[in-house]
Amino acid sequence: MMTSVDTELIRVLADPLRLRIVTLLAKETLCTTHLMEETGAKQTNLSNHMKVLREAGVVDTEPCGRFIYYRLRPEVIATLAGQFADLAETARATAEQNLKRSCP
């Protein structure tokens, strides 16, 4: 059983705007203009957040004319979900066995 979770990815997704962006991209591929309309974020702020998401491997880009479209990489989210599922299973097993460390 795996008990560690990708803390860097959690940090990336912990930002409310980035989490909102990921939620939007789960539903459709969007360009910066769409993301600005949906989130109300300014272009420079949005670009900074998209850079973080790209560098973390959460989104892919697709140039289309003068626009850049962003697509969520579902396997990244699925891996993180699997890590949390493993962590939950470890916690269940620990609770069932009533494992606890004794105090010195």
Can you give a write-up of this model?
- This protein is of the alpha+beta class.
- Helix content is 62%, strand content 13%.
- The chain has helices at residues 7-14, 16-27, 32-39, 43-55, 74-97, and strands at 30-31, 59-64, 67-72.
- The chain has a three-stranded antiparallel β-sheet with strand order 1-3-2.
- It is elongated and about 65 Å long.
- The model has no long low-confidence stretch (mean pLDDT 92).
Fold blueprint:
Elements: H1 7-14, H2 16-27, E1 30-31, H3 32-39, H4 43-55, E2 59-64, E3 67-72, H5 74-97
Antiparallel strand pairs: 1-3, 2-3
Sheet with most strands: 3 strands, antiparallel
Number of E strands: 3
- Shape descriptor: elongated
- Residue runs with pLDDT of under 50 for 5 or more positions: none
Helical stretch tally: 5
- The spatial strand order of the largest sheet comes to 1-3-2
Arithmetic mean of pLDDT? 92
Reading the helices and strands in chain order gives HHEHHEEH
Query: From the helix content, strand content and strand pairing, which structural class follows?
Result: alpha+beta
Q: Percent helix among the residues?
A: 55-70%
Radius of gyration: 18 Å
Beta fraction:
5-15%
Distance between the termini: 28 Å
Task: Give a quick set of tags describing it.
single chain; 104 residues; alpha+beta; three-stranded antiparallel beta sheet; 5 helices; 13% strand
